[in-house]
Amino acid sequence: MKAKRKPAIKAKRSPGKAASDARLISECVIYAQEIAAFNAGFMADPDSNKDHAAGLGDRHHDRAQQALRKIATMKASTAAELDAKARILPMVIHDSPGSMESADEVFYRTFAADVRAFLDPLVHADWLATKDKAAA
Questions:
Q1: Interatomic CA distance for residues 45 and 54, integer angstroms
Q2: Please, what is the average pLDDT of the chain?
Q3: Residue environment code for 21-31, b if the CB has 16+ CB neighbours within 10 A, otherwise e
Q4: Which of 64, 69, 75, 94 could form a disulfide with 34 if both were Cys (CB 3.0 to 4.6 A apart)?
Q5: Position 26 pLDDT exceeds 70
Q6: b/e map of 81-110 (b: 16 or more CB within 10 Å)?
Q7: Are 107 and 68 in contact (CB under 8 A)?
Q8: Is pLDDT of 28 > 90?
Q9: Is 62 helix (H, G, I), strand (E, B) or coil?
Q10: How much is the pLDDT for 20?
C-alpha cells in the first residue's frame, strides 16, 4: 500500500518584496557569511603562522569572492537590494586592505552607480518640490 503524497506548498513571498530581490540579497548574505567564517577561522587558529586557518579557509574566501563577482554584476533596483549592498560595503573594504582586486573595484563602481540611479528620481522630486515652494 502506497502512502498518499501531499502536494508541495510554495512559500508565499511578502507582498512588498520583488522576486528579483531574493537573488541579490542572498548573494550579499552569502558574501557576509563566508567572509565571517573565513575570519573566524583565523581567530580560532592558535598557530602563529595560521597554517590551519589558511588551508581550511580557502573555500570560504573563494566562495565569498564568487558571491562578490555576482553581486558586482547585479543592479540594485529596489531599496532592499541597495540596502543589502550597502550593508556589505564595510566588509568588502575590510577584506581588501591595501589592495583592490578586480571584483572589489567592479563592486565599488556598480554600488555607486546603483546609489545614483536609485536616488536621482528622489533628489529630482525634492528639487521640484523646493522649486514649487519658492515659486509660491
A1: 9
A2: 83
A3: beebbebbebb
A4: 64
A5: yes
A6: bbebbeebeebbeebbeeeeeebbeebbeb
A7: yes
A8: yes
A9: helix
A10: 59
Cell numbers found for residue 40: 573566524
If pLDDT is split at 50, 70 and 90, which confidence band does 6 have?
A: low
What is the rounded CA–CA span in Å between residue 27 and residue 84? 9
The pLDDT tens digits for 88-117 are 998 988 887 666 677 888 888 889 889 988
- Which residues have C-beta within 8 Å of that of residue 88, sequence separation ≥ 6? 28, 31, 32, 71
Write phi, then psi, for 109 (nearest 5 degrees). Answer: -65, -45
- Angstrom distance (rounded) from CA 136 to CA 133: 5
| Residue appearing with cell numbers 602563529 | 48
31 contacts: CB under 8 Å, gap ≥ 6: 64, 67, 68, 71, 88, 91, 92
Region 38-42 average pLDDT:
89
User: How far is it, in rounded angstroms, from Cα 87 to Cα 66?
Assistant: 18
